[in-house]
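Note to self: user wants both folds in one dump. Writing first protein now.
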Amino acid sequence: MAKNTVTSAQTEHKNGVFVFAGIFLAVATLAFMFVLYNSFTRTKRAYDETLSSIESISDINDRLLTINRNLLMIIANISSHPEDYYTDMERGFVAIDKDINDYLNNGDHSEMELARFNQARLFIDQYHNQITSIGMHMLGSVVDTGNAAGNLLELRNSYIQEVHPVQITASEMVGATIDIAEIETQDKVRRVEIAFYTAEVVLFVVAIVGEVAIILAARITKRNREALARQAAEIEEATAKFKHTKEKANEMAYLNILTGMKNRYALDNDLSGRLETDQFNIAVFDMDNFRSINDMYGYDFGDEYLAMLGERLKEEYGNDAEIYNITGNEFCFVFNKEVSDIQATRIAERVIQTLAEWYTVLNLNVQLTASGSTCHYLPGDCISVAALLVKLDNVLRDAKRNGGNMVLQVVGI
């Protein structure tokens, strides 16, 4: 009887251990599942908020790029309806305000990220105020035919000196906000990874007692990892989009939209550092009486004509010089170092002949002469690229006054 009593007590004790172990395994498994699910839910929410924030910031930079492109179209005097571009710019700023509110209302942001974003907002507001303050002046620059060239020159100078630097700084501040968000997101990822790896170790120890629990936990962990990987890929894609947008913005600032050639700002950027140390040959060319083409056939025809001329110049002389389309129908050649003074003069004469050939534009044959000026530049001759272009343009106008269809040399620079 006593033996049976002991055996019964031992059996009850073993059963109690198994019950305790089963309860422990069940509680531990449920606890770890809750921890993993809670970590995954919070991490997914943080990733979704971070992704949405990055998309909002990327949209802001895209809209800044579009606004800058519209401003350049007005400055280049390409469109006959500049007011449409100005209206689109104002709509862009309204959309930027909405993106800013979406960003601020979406999730928690660190003090550093908000500080950098607020800096970006200040530059965006300054950019908006500058465009608004010169808005009517922009339209007047195009409508006022009496002093259109002077107004546009003043507008271009204002854009270079005041507006464009603010726009670039605003884009850089937006980019810095993205960078901070990425760093903080990566830190969150590291903390989550540590939490996951710690949970896996504990689950492995618990799995020695109950294999079923570890299989379930492993499946949950795997699903969570895959979800995190997808979120990380989406953030990486959004970041790549922003970087691509930034590169396009910088590229557009230095290109003539019509001909695809480098523009006046690119020429200034390329030559400014060479004025004190280098000597080189430079020439400018301008079509004679080009306005007659626009007056007779319209601006679309004139644009097509200029694009055709640009392609011809790049094709025939691209190996001899860096070619810029610095104004509507004015081209600038900065000859390579291997090109001698005599060769530069001969090439300039050939360019005049090339520009004066007959071209078929929109099924119509058209032919205009061209004038040019050349200069052998020596170190220290001019204090700025603008001063050098003024000397070249003065001689160019002399050529036009003498009947055009010729190249004159700048003497006594």
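First done. Writing the second protein, which came from a different request thread.
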Amino acid sequence: MLPTAIGQNVDVTVLRAGSLVVDPPVVLAPMAGVTNRAFRRLCREQGAGLYVSEMVTSRALVERHEATLDMVRFDPDESPRSVQLYGVDPHIVGEAVRMVVDEDLADHVDLNFGCPVPKVTRKGGGSALPWKRDLFADIVTSAVTAADGRVPVTVKMRKGIDDDHLTYREAGRVARDAGVAWVALHGRTTRQMYSGKADWSAIARLVEDLDGFPVLGNGDIFSAQDALDMVAQTGCAGVVVGRGCLGRPWLFGQLAAAFAGDEIPADPDLPYVIATFRRHAELLIDGFGEYTGSREIRKHVAWYFKGYAVKRQVRQGLANVSSLAEVDDWLGQIDPDQPADEDVMAAPRGRTGGERPPSLPEGWLDSPFLDPESAACVREAELSVSGG
């Protein structure tokens, strides 16, 4: 039992799925354009856990699109290798999982039923899909059958479409009975996107519903203490970290210390942040070439330097770099001898914004079962989502 800073006690166990062992029970959430090989390496160097690839479209994988195949290439020393698949067709998802297993592309497959973005949900995919309970069951069953026990299959999902159309409790039971290794629940609905507070009580209800089956919690973990609090309040078997690690790969070292019962390291000073940003840029350029790598690091500028007084022209310069030499030039203009603004640092990272009406196929909510019209729409869903 681990004492937390507010006097709680936390039960911590190793997360196991067949031969896969996740210790500490910490999972990096797939994030499009972020959780590529470079970022996963930075996170792995900080602490152990499970670091999942960007979301990969099942159809694009089966059809061997080059950009998609590149997304499921891992560093030679990356272990375990984890890939998240997105799909809406049970047969295609099954074929994708079989390909992953037969060709030894990964050691773990996660199924995406949590993406709330309109281009995915308007065709019935992502977090909209569990509403069609028969389709959800068929996809999960097809994936588990194709894996044939050779790699664990897991599910990541949201509470539901909105408060009037919750799906997580039924979907959790279906996934468990289909043979997945665990389910991860983000405590928000599609309508909420990333707004407001995640509903950790929903995670606790699912833990109680599934009675001993592993449930991972996701939503509003911006510090190691947040992770301990979530485990204490919900009884979840582990945590999934998304926006909280943007510009902060060292969060995984803090999480490892927290789950080991050790003192949680303080956030690093600005020179360390600068050095980590520079290494991130170098890894991206080494892995994807100077043209692509330079453009990939641009999106990380605001996350790394959140809470610091970095001049506007320096931020703009870093957001337009085209080489590692330019990165070095702009980083050299940052005053490293300054503290962070703690209030700014404590604010949520990444996407925020307000709620928005879910984008759904016409008539999607009329029935929780797939009808011919909805089935025709869903068949187009994977075609509207590129390799990630």
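Dump finished. Worth passing along: The chain has two domains: 2-266+360-384, 270-339.
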